[in-house]
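Quick entry between incubations.
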Amino acid sequence: MSKKLKIGLFGFGVVGQGLHDIIKGQDLNIEVIKIAIKNPEKKRNLDKKLFTTDHQELLDHPDINTIVELIDDADAAYAIVKKALISGKNVVSANKKMIALHLAELVALQKKYGTSLLYEGSVCGSIPIIRNLEEYYDNELLHGISGIFNGSSNYILSKIFNEGMSYDLALKQVQDLGFAESDPILDVGGYDAKYKLAIATAHAYGLFINPDHILNIGIQNLSESDVKYAKEKNFKIKLVPTARKISTQQVITYVLPKFVRSDDFIYNVENEYNCVTVQAAFADKQFFFGKGAGGHPTGAAVLSDIAALRYGYKYEYKKYQQQNGLVHTDNVNLEVYLRYEHEYTVEKLKIENIRERFSNKDYKYVIGNVSLKSLLENRELLQNKDVFIAHTGKITYTAQQILGAKNNLLSIATLEN
Amino acid sequence: MSKKLKIGLFGFGVVGQGLHDIIKGQDLNIEVIKIAIKNPEKKRNLDKKLFTTDHQELLDHPDINTIVELIDDADAAYAIVKKALISGKNVVSANKKMIALHLAELVALQKKYGTSLLYEGSVCGSIPIIRNLEEYYDNELLHGISGIFNGSSNYILSKIFNEGMSYDLALKQVQDLGFAESDPILDVGGYDAKYKLAIATAHAYGLFINPDHILNIGIQNLSESDVKYAKEKNFKIKLVPTARKISTQQVITYVLPKFVRSDDFIYNVENEYNCVTVQAAFADKQFFFGKGAGGHPTGAAVLSDIAALRYGYKYEYKKYQQQNGLVHTDNVNLEVYLRYEHEYTVEKLKIENIRERFSNKDYKYVIGNVSLKSLLENRELLQNKDVFIAHTGKITYTAQQILGAKNNLLSIATLEN
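Done. Structure below.
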């Protein structure tokens, strides 16, 4: 009925071993033929003959029809996936950076060589978001997606907000637990979340956006004053990537810390868990929650891709292929909380409509509107330790955008959320 | 690449029209050839030639390769689906009662005739739970599933708890909104939730349970005293279907009102929304939330099944086929809140370990343990207006069950939730 998959596995780290744990003992019509590893000295529980350090051995192996790529290095992963797709092998990958950076080319290769590349495990681990975006929602009817895409930064925020832990101690703890990137700025600076957002946006709207064009502001500058402010208002701060349609033709994307209220599902998403909220015209609001990081949750997502390959599943990239005329824009105003030291920062960012202002000798903030364009232009300024910025959740649209949204089945209430 | 689907559609009610709304304007390689309806007099927006009242015309039509069955009548639906599968046509259905009652036969027919029957829309509307249970979780590693499966009863509970509305008025409102079953007891009595639970349990554990053997206690006897009690403890009451593995070999299932705490995701699931919580060893906890009732959410799920048929997707029923030795049992004790009038009720149900007891002339309750077996044996007694029962969430296991659970990668903490 379904095709027997003979797998060449690249990488036997936490996800590769997680995958192996899950496959073990299940009757799945799947066989791991060979595993490519970096360090042949490391002690492993499996038969030595399964392992090799020669990548080409897997790619040339006549029995292997499926490559599962689970290595950290995005460049090496790119080379492997490209060769595999060209040589007629289907591929499963969980490498979000590699996929976000090379998606257009990888789609072209799949088309040209009739092969399939699946990567559910690359975005939010165990949450089946790519498949859902691909199959459920027409881009016209999808108002927006957002969520918590990075478990490490969310873990840090949970410890700070629920246990009063310091940022530094929380960061150390997440590193000790082993689910942080080796360079912490990739997690806490919102880069990891940004790559995942780029992939999700490709399947949501058919827009392949260069990750460099997506704003990512992280939580690395969060101070005790910011936490105190949020707690007094009964907010939590979460790091939230967002893609949102703001008119019939325009999509905005950003990764920003956000004040979250207690009646929002995101509020209760703690520690290394991830979630995705989808708003759409027909399915209305959907919310997916699950473990985002770690070998087993990601392994489960990888396994579901492997299972799908058995019956020849491919992403169709329908929204991308049909040239829907959507464009990525920065032409929108976000309401933000901005903590700063020098008035210069407020002026440089062109904060407008300031509706709240506080200042004493240790702590200054404003709440007002800023354009996404200005934030992107001043990314470096926002890296300064004396600046922290968080989205209040409000977006201000131009009259034209509101009109466009109305024509597009969106209600203003939806826009304002 | 993917096969063109030529559809014969049975039923053009709220889901059928919802499906049609969604398909319209999308480039999906799908064509609706003919629609079978009951009443030819009703005014419709589509070309008259599309409609027929003759079922056989669709089943015999040489161009139609896919049947989409969206009618209310479970018996008629069964006849249609059976004939379609036998005649080599793939089928999508959203009829939970029909599927729950005939699953074993429908699986055998699919196998014998090489056809595929998909029914994501039958359980929790827009939430992709069947596909996830089918593809993600090995039954050994799945601790339990629960959630809110019936939008109408949840809507009533939301109105009672959040707006202080009376039960009767809330029921009337949900009927006016058009997403209630014609006989309200199917919703508020937990029957609808039970059919959905039976289907979910089939895909979770490979157990095809006769719905008659699943306890369903509803919310129809909920009184103001019960609501007041729950509110004082900061609980909400939700109607929660549950399937849970309690040892390596045993699965329990029931639909019961449940006291839910504010840190549980279910707490914030309001009105006609549905949710599913899945606990598993590798993926850990997952939570899915979305609209359960209504034409568009269910239509979206039906469309995703149709999309899956284009690339030949079938449920494999692996857990069922592999004869995993799991059995359905009632041999477990649940901690419950029982409001009653006559002491006879407490005795008859054999409530044990009573840890809280209250009684005045208008209101009597106990909190204690009761066996699932006893609840099943006394179903009729529990229908009496003077009795209301709700699960506190606690389950008491035998020492043997706890040992079995431990061997099965379950922690006691998991069991106690």
